[in-house]
Amino acid sequence: MSRAVLLPHALSSVAVARRYLCADLRAAGVVRSLVDDAAIVLTELLGNALRHAAPLPPPYPPQRVRAAWSLVRPGEGPQQADGTWVEISVSDGGGETLPRLAGPSVSALGGRGLAVVQRLSSRWGTELDENTTTVWAIIDIPVMPVASGTVPQFPRASSA
What we know:
Layout: E1 2-8, H1 13-27, H2 32-52, E2 64-72, E3 84-92, H3 113-120, E4 123-128, E5 133-141
Antiparallel strand pairs: 1-2, 2-3, 3-5, 4-5
C-alpha cells in the first residue's frame, strides 16, 4: 500500500493528508494507536513544510507540496527486511534552514515538532536534491505472532 498526493501549500492540506493516511492504514489493518502515531508524524512533517519552506518548484504545479506514505511488509523493502513499517515523507521547495531538532525553552510556543517525530519513529531524516527537500520518518509496525504455517497479520484494534 502506498500513496503520494500533491497538496496546496496551505495549512488546510494537513487535515486532507491525515484523512487519506489514516484511511489507508486502517484499510491495511494497522492498529489504531499506530495509525494515530503515523498521523501525528505526518502532521508535524507537513506542518513544518508549510510553515518553513517554499512550495515545490516546476515542473510541479504551482503552490504545491507532496506528501507520501508506504506500508512496507516483510520482504518488500529495499533490503528485504523482516519487519513491517510505514514510511512517511513530505517534499517541498526548501527553506532558509534545514530541518533539525530544536531545544526550545519551556515557555516557547513551538520548536518541538521534530522531537515528537523522533520519539514516535524509529528513524527520520532529510534528503536534498537540486530543488527539493524531503523529510521522511519510519514507524515500525509490529506483526502479531501467529501459529506456524499461517500468514502473519497486523494487529487490529478491538471493537468493544
